[in-house]
């Protein structure tokens, strides 16, 4: 009587060679900034005399994302069983995210025809996600099974980005991904709760707007931008 008995659900689920499912998740998107010490160190920064850019040519312009904005992720799960402990997973989907940049100088967006300074500059993205992951599963404990995942991902930002954006990002980038999760075997499906970290490898900083279109100082302050994503996912398989 001291041994509590559990009814095991989906006892043959992990024996399937291939199975499918879908994913719902919450994400936050971040940027890693590499700044020029002062604006004049950027050889591509050529401000027009008397312009707003010109007065910052010897300044230390800095940006940050002080608060992460929640986004949404949806996708499809394709799982290939390799052996008792390893799976190979392909999880194509879409992610919607936003990054709000704050500068140590006033933000003026001439292209938006706004004369008052902005509190932040918002970069919204819609990603097509193509992650390829290896999943290592620990021994099943009744209806629970912890696991870790690792692999890579390729993302394409399909959101519209004009030439006059204050900070323009390149549309595609590659990532290294790693995470932990917990499988719960329910009566009719397996629910997996997963926390995954995605670290960008590429410089996603795009070209600066022309001096005629908009102010260049906001994008020319960086020598490199890399994108990171943190995702809390719920897999239904």
- Which segments are poorly predicted (pLDDT under 50) over 5 or more consecutive residues? none
CATH architecture: Beta Barrel
Strand content: over 45%
Query: Tell me, what is the CATH class?
Result: Mainly Beta
CATH fold topology? Porin
How many individual β-strands? 10
- Biggest sheet, open or closed, and with what strands and sense? 10 strands, antiparallel
- Cα separation of the termini: 34 Å
Q: What is the assembly state of the chains in this entry?
A: single chain
Shape: elongated
Radius of gyration over all CA atoms, rounded:
23 Å
- How do the SSEs run, as a string of H and E? EEEEEEEEEHE
> What number of domains?
1
**Would you tell me the structural class of the helices and strands?**
mainly beta
How many helices does DSSP assign?
A: 1
Helix content: under 10%
* Overall residue-averaged pLDDT value: 93
Describe this structure in words.
Helices cover 2% and strands 50% of the residues. It is built from one helix and ten strands; from the N terminus they run βββββββββαβ. The chain is mostly beta strands and 237 residues long. It has a single domain, classed as Porin. Strands 1, 2, 3, 4, 5, 6, 7, 8, 9 and 10 form a ten-stranded antiparallel β-sheet that branches.
What tags apply to this protein structure?
1 helix; ten-stranded antiparallel sheet; elongated; 10 strands; single chain; Porin; 237 residues
């Amino acid at each position: 009587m001291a041994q509590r008995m559990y009814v095991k659900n989906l006892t043959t689920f992990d024996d399937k060679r291939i199975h499918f499912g879908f994913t719902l998740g919450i994400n936050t998107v971040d940027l890693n900034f590499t700044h020029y010490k002062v604006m004049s160190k950027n050889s591509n920064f050529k401000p027009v005399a008397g312009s707003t850019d010109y007065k910052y040519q010897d300044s230390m312009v800095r940006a940050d994302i002080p608060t992460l904005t929640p986004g949404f992720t949806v996708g499809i799960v394709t799982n290939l069983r390799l052996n008792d402990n390893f799976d190979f997973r392909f999880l194509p989907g879409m992610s919607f995210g936003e990054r709000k940049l704050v500068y140590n100088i006033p933000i003026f967006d001439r292209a938006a025809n706004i004369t008052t300074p902005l509190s932040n500059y918002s970069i919204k993205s819609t990603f097509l996600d193509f992650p390829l992951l290896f999943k290592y599963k620990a021994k099943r404990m009744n209806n629970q099974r912890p696991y870790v995942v690792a692999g890579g991902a390729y993302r394409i930002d399909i959101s519209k980005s004009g030439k006059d954006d204050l900070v323009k990002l390149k549309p595609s980038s590659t990532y290294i991904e790693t995470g932990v999760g917990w499988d719960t075997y329910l009566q009719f499906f397996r629910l997996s709760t997963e926390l995954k970290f995605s670290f960008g490898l590429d410089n996603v900083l795009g070209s600066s707007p022309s001096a005629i279109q908009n102010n260049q100082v906001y994008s020319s302050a960086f020598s490199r931008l890399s994108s990171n994503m943190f995702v809390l996912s719920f897999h239904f398989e």
